[in-house]
Every structure is written in C-alpha cells, then in structure tokens.
Amino acid sequence: MELMRHIWALSQEIGPRGSTTPAEARAADYIDQEMSRWASEVRRQEFMSPTSFSWIYGALYLLGGLAGLLYWVNHWLATAISLLALILFVMENSSRGSFWKLFPKKPSQNVIGIVRPKGEATSSTSSSPISIPRPIPKRVVLVAHHDSSRSASMFSPEQVPYFRLTFLLGTACLAVVPLLNLLSLVFPRWLWIPYAQTPFYLYLLAAFLLMVHRELSGEYTPGANDNASGEAAMLAVGERLAQEGLNHIELWCVSTGCEEVGTIGMIYFLDEYGPQLRDAYFINLDNLGTGTVKYTTGEGMLAVYPCDEYLVGVARRVSAGHPEWGIQEAVNQIMMTDANPALARGFRILSIRAEDENGLLPNWHWYTDTYDNIDPKTMGVVANFLYALVRAIEAD
C-alpha cells in the first residue's frame, strides 16, 4: 500500500525530521525522487528559516514579561515595549509578521511537483500542426509539510487538552500588561496598577522559560501522523491522478519545509508562486493518520479565517455522497497550519485533518507519533476523499 510505504519511509527510515536539519533535507530528497516518477515537472525552492518557533515566541513572551518589570525603572519605556510585544505577537499569529526574520537561520527547502493536463489542441490547416493556446486550466494545489516538531511538556498527553487555554492566557497577558501601563499613564494616582501587573508578567516569563526548556530538553518526534501522513496522501493521490490523467486542471503538489517553525516554507512559496496561483484551489493536508477525518470550515488560533465557500461546498457534497467515510466538519483553532498564511493572504483553501473523540490531534508533537500508531483505514478514507475532491473540482 503506497500510503503506508511513504509513512514508513519518512517516519521510520528517515525518522525525526526537525526543521532545517539534515533529516528534513533527506525527506525533501525522498519526496523529490517520488514526484519525479510521475510529475510533469519537479522544482526545488530553497530558503532560509529559523530553526524553531520556540525562539520566536520565547522572545515575544520575554519582551512582554520584561515590560512588566521595567515599569519600576521607566514607565514610558515599559509601555512602548509591551505594546511592541503585543503587536508583533498578533502579526506573527496572522503569518503576516517579519519578526522571525531577525533570528539566525539555516537552509530549508520546498519541493513542488506539477502535473499538467493531458494533450494540446492542434490545428492541421497546414502541413505542420500549429498548436493552439489552451485556456489556462483550473489549478488545484495540494500542500503538506515534511518536517516534524520538537516535543515539549506543553504537548504531553496530559497537557494537550489545555494547550489552547494556555495559549489564550499568554495572549491575554500580552494584552493586559500594555493596557495597565497605559491606564497608569492616564491615572498616575492609581498606585495599585504596578502590583496588579505582577501575575501577568510573571506568567509571560514562565512561558518564556517553557520555550527555553523545549529547546534544551525536547527531542524531534518521528512525525508519522504529523506529517508523514499528509505527505503520503499527497504523494499517493498525486501519482494516481498523474497516471489516470487530468483533463481540465493543473495539479500542484507542494511539500513544504519548516511548517513547524511557523509555516515559513508556505510563506516563501506564496511569496514566489502566489501571483500565478491567485485563482487556484488549495487543499492542505496535515495530521491525517488516525481518528475521524474532517475538513475545516475556518482556521486561526486568534482570529478565525473562513475557508473558501466553494471548497467547503465541494467537501460537503463529496462527503454527503459517501456517508460510509464518516467525514465531518471542523473549525481549527488548535494549531497553526500551512492554511493560515494562505487564508491571511486571501487564497482559496481548506484543510483535511483527523481528530480523536475530544477534537484533539492524536500523539501531537509527542514521542508516540510513530508508524505503529497510524490507522491504515483512516489513511484509506483520506486518500479516497482527497481524490474525490480533486475530481469534483475538475468536473465543475
């Protein structure tokens, strides 16, 4: 079974594929070789990326925490720094920020396979056939990332159910500190304000220490579910469509690097190829290997961006036609995916994912994200659903 072969190769033979590491590069080589067997064209897109989101978000939490401490030294400076930390945090979470560019970087890469539609229309009005330009076909872009994450205490099975809550608490603290600083400027006689800040900036400093702890003690996970499963679905369905042939669409299969850093590979891809794919239909594939298969109607850890109405409609139509697959709808507010930068930039996209009975991602960023914990039946549903989506878009 091709799906399981790809998952085995990425998660077992190559193993943990940390962002910007040699193992991530070997995963890209494997995907390049696989795509080269059936794609019309394969491209490599090289870029430079930070090695981890821990340094980016750790620095933002540190700025917010230090702003609380700085109140006792320079009130105006503390207010400015706390506002800066909040603005940068919001921008990073919308994938429109550039704060990550300030950090040391290492090489990473995207792999892009393109399957062109069958045939060219010709005219034989002379002895030599003259090619007639074809209309630009509809484009469908499948996206999956090939890097895997570093573990952390926040991703332990006991803590994952509270991950979103702790993220929102950190966001609230980043907002409360500058708010209290501003109130203190307006009402200088409110002497209780600096004391009221204490629990908020201490929480931010604790969050910074958690980010440091992740980098010092966390280990890269095998990434079978996150996201060898997404790569397997993209490669298997891409190969099937290429072998059968496409009549009315051009298929792009995009394997991104450094998704686990903050969707850096997807950002670079959209920066370079976005102008020619403005009208394309994107389908993001992430964490597909076990649980209930779902498609997203909206995504975002802070603001929720609605997914493309047409794609959601196609997903509803296809899933309704196959009730035996048990596919459901979901809103993703748990994690940032490669869909976020596309949604923030106005591209047409939805994601396919699989969740457990609590709406969480099984074995997410943990040591148990192994090949043995992948369900072949779930992967079969994903592959059939994805294939049917592409064919439905082609038929419309």
Could you list some keywords that capture this structure?
single chain; alpha/beta; nine-stranded mixed sheet; about 45% helix; elongated; 11 strands; two-stranded antiparallel ribbon; about 400 residues
What is the helical fraction, as a range of percent? 40-55%
Rounded average pLDDT: 92
Question: Which H/E pattern describes the elements?
Answer: HHEHHEEEEHHHHEHEEEHEHEH
How would the global form be characterised? elongated
Instruction: Tell me about the largest β-sheet.
Output: 9 strands, mixed
Tell me the strand percentage band. Answer: 15-25%
For the CA atoms, what is the radius of gyration?
Answer: 23 Å
Question: What is the straight-line distance between the termini?
Answer: 30 Å
Summary of the model, kept short:
With 396 residues, the protein is an alpha/beta fold. It contains twelve helices and eleven strands.
